[in-house]
Each structure stands twice: as C-alpha cells, then as structure tokens.
Amino acid sequence: MRRRVFCAARRDRAAGPADVGTGGIGLFAGLIASGLTILVAGCQEGNQYVPPPPPVVQVAQPVERAVTRYFELTGNTKAFASVDLEARIQGYLTGIAYTDGATVGRGTPLFSIQRDTYDAQLQQAQGALAAQEAAKTNSQSDYQRQATLGRSEYASQARVEDSKSRLDQAIAGVTQAQANLKLAQINLGYTQVLAPFDGIVTNHLVDVGALVGVGGPTKLASIVQIDPLYVSFNVSEQQVLQVKQALAAAGRTLGDLARIPVAIGLQTEAGYPHTGHLDYVAPQVDPATGTLLARGRLANPDHRLVPGLFVRVQIPVGQAQKALLVRDDAIGTGQQGPYVLVVGADDTVAQRPVTLGPREGRERVVEAGLQAGDWVVTEGLQRAIPGIKVAPVRTQARSAEATPPVQAAPPVQAASQR
Description:
conserved putative lor/sdh protein from methanococcus maripaludis s2 fold, 20 strands, about 30% helix, disordered N terminus, disordered C terminus
C-alpha cells in the first residue's frame, strides 16, 4: 500500500513542476509519432528483397566438321613368326654361338652338335657311292658286250638278259648310294642349328656338354620375328556387316584388305600411334562367340611392340562425313542417359538429351538431339540449372584437333622370307 502511494506521489511531483500544459504535451506527442513513422518507413525500405543477377555462363555452338567413324576394339599383339629351335640328331652339344636375347639374322649359326660321327658317315656314303658307280660301269660294259654277241648269235638270249639284270641292279645301287650320301650330308648339316629368319633368340634351354636328340628332337631355344608384327582382334557380326556396307559403297570388297588401315595404341599411350593395314579376316563367323577373327600387320623396326601385349585397336568405317561435335566435358549423364545444357533465345537453360558418337580428341560426336545453331553451356555448368535464366557469354568454340584419320599403310614387307 505504501509502495503504490509512493509511486503516485513521485509521478505527481515529476509532473507538477515541469508541467508544460496541454499544448506542450500534444506537440511532444506529435514529434514522437513523426519519428516513429520515419523509422518504420526506413526499416521497410531496408528489408525489401532484391533478386540476385542471373548467373554468368559461357556458351558455344557445336563444331561442324568432317569426321571419320571408327571401330574401337581391343586385341593382342602376336609375333610375325615364332619357331622352336631343336636338335634333330643325336649327339653332344658342343657350342652356343649367341647371347640370350640377341637379335640375329637369317642363317646365323646358333648351336653346334658333335659332328665327328656324321663326318664319318658322310665319308662312308661317299665311298659306297663310288663303289656302286664302278659296279654300274662294269655291268654296263658287260651288257653291251653280251648284247653285241647276242645279235651275232654267239651268246644266248638268257645270258644277255642276265647281263641286263646285273646292269639294272647296279643302276639301282647307285641310286641308293646317292640317297645315302644325301642323308649323310643332311645329318651333317643338322650338327649346326641356324636361325631360320631374322629375329630375337630366347634364352638357351640346354647347356654345352648335354646329350641331345635322344629318342627325338630336343628343344634348345626359340626364335621370334617381331618386325613386322601381327595384332589379332575379334569383330562382331554387326560390325562386319557395317564394314562390308562401307566397302561396297566405296566399290571395294574384303579382298582389298591391304587398303584398310589399322591403328593400335598401348594402354599407356595417347591415341593410336602405331599404324599398319588389315592383313587377314576369317572366312566365317565363330558361332560360339558371334565374332569374326581379324588380323592387322604393322611395321615394328624399333621393336617397341612385343608379342602378347593388350592393345587398343582402331579401324575406320567408311568415308569422312560431316558431324556436330561438342566438348566432352560439357556432356552430363542422368537417369535418361547423356544430355547437354542448352540456352534458349530467352536465356533460359534447358536440358537436352543427346545421342553420342565416338570421341574425337577432347570433343564428342553428337549424332542426335542437337542442332548446329544451339548454344551449349561449356563453362559454369554447376550454375546452369534447367529452368532458370542465365547471362550467357557467347564464345567461339575452339575445335580441338581430332585424331587424324589413319592413312592406309603400304604393305609391310617381312624382314626375311618365311
């Protein structure tokens, strides 16, 4: 109770001495109202929403140029020729005339086998041939003599025929002796194992002093020829039909294989730097796989390629035709497949589904879904949301140099005749 009286008294005292009257109070209230109005108006102006400017993106029109279509396949490199070097006669290995892994030419001696026995056999065959030839000469003289006597009836017909039989046996003996001499010469030649063609010889499998050729040939090493080099790959049935159609359009057949270029690249290489030509296509499709075996032939003078490598293979299909290309990094992938972002005439972004073709350098062929006059977003894709307006900066698309069409290589000649 006291608190209420005290507060009221304070209010009375405060109002009493400083009483300004009714007019003063009205003026004061008007000033306060004006200030509040200005304050409220200022706050309303400061909180008004101002939309942000449209995002800036770079756009470019698709590049139009002639593009050669390719099949991009996988395959394996294979040696042009590969054989085992074997000892075909029995004897002790007396020498190894090469370093493991050496590159040798055709006819280079590689292994030596003990030849004493075969020298003796050759001399024996030569002596037997000489004896048979002497017997033949004697039999021929006897027959001529008996034939002359027989015509004069000084020798019986039986004696003449017996002389003729001995001559025939002598002639057969000479033929047999000649064959034995030839065999002796061949066996003597087998005492040296020569390189059958230019190539690289593997490590030797038998050491000097070992007995070889017992019970059959003994493998000594292998030699491979890798210049030129083969690359084998499989082509699907559909791809075979496309190749035939392209050849027919160009007035060619599968007989013109040497005119169809082939290019390959290793997994660590960019593009397809190694070029050659198609060498062989199987005459029938494998029913188990539905594919056709094909083979390319490439020059390999620096031996950068070796047999057994997994490689990428590129084969052109048909002639170069005009196509639309966009930057590969401007293509997105959604649930419906690949797409590009296109800016329309009203600067609104739209998502456009496209059908893609092969890659050409840093660009990708667009086979359907895009027109030459469309403006495709190339920079700022994260800001280009379908349905919003953007501020497009139109640029001239720089066409990255595509991989040049593979030119048909001239037929590769083997380093040596097989």
